[in-house]
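Q: Got a minute? One more chain.
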Amino acid sequence: MARQHLYADPEIYDILHADGTASDVARFARVARRVSAGLRGVKQLRWLGPASGSGRYLLACAKRGDVAVGIDFSKEMVAYTLARAEAAGLSGVGGVVGRMETFDLGKVEWAGKQGAGKNGAGKPTAFGKAHVVFNPINSIRHVATDSAMLKHLDRVRACLHADGVYIVGLSLSAYGLETVSEDVWVGKRGKTTVTQVVQYEPPDEDARGAAGRRERVMSHLTIERGGVEEHRDSSYWLRTYNLQQWLGLVEKAKWRVAGTFDNTGKIAKGSEPGYYLFVLVPTRGK
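A: Always. Here it is, folded:
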């Protein structure tokens, strides 16, 4: 049984997570425009994904006629994103290799050739300021410390349009109440089927201190293609937050929560445990 991280294979990662991507992007757009009146008249949104992975969200944005740039620490993921966009004839998709707390949008590489793509968008020469920054499904929890998170939020603020919003998808922890849990995900494309069984081990202490605020994630992949079955195991850690820790860090970074929504896009009140879309905006004048 191979020990290969899920993230090491862009195509397998993309197959596993592709289902529902277009509806997710439509939901993010609705939520962003609900919170920010200044975005309601914007016909072509500029999207920024600080942890863009295989680029599935970016391509979905481009298919809407928008412009989207993704940041990822994996050069393989960025290359995969740009190759898929170019193969689909989509302009307006860019990528840059970088980390969430130190990325540089001056290094964006754009997919496609000069001129309009099939989506009607021309190849940009620069990105400008983002209308919607999005970081769903707990990707922000890969930022391992509060100090690194503050740097990340500073970088996002510097790239955000005056009417822009930052949508963060975050699971809140209920320390001392959670037990080991398990999810099963299945994705199919052509003759390839990917199944992931993932277990989550919550912190084993009250986690008010920094040392205890880690959740262990253990992944088992089964990949079936061409009549051959392959198994891969990997594990990693995610930073944990209860509601007080999250809101306190947001305030410290000089942002505020302008809206909280559940995963269907309905207004919600955040509580532990639970997954929410927190829509952040900078605290003006501070």
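A: The mean pLDDT is 91.
Q: Perfect, thanks.
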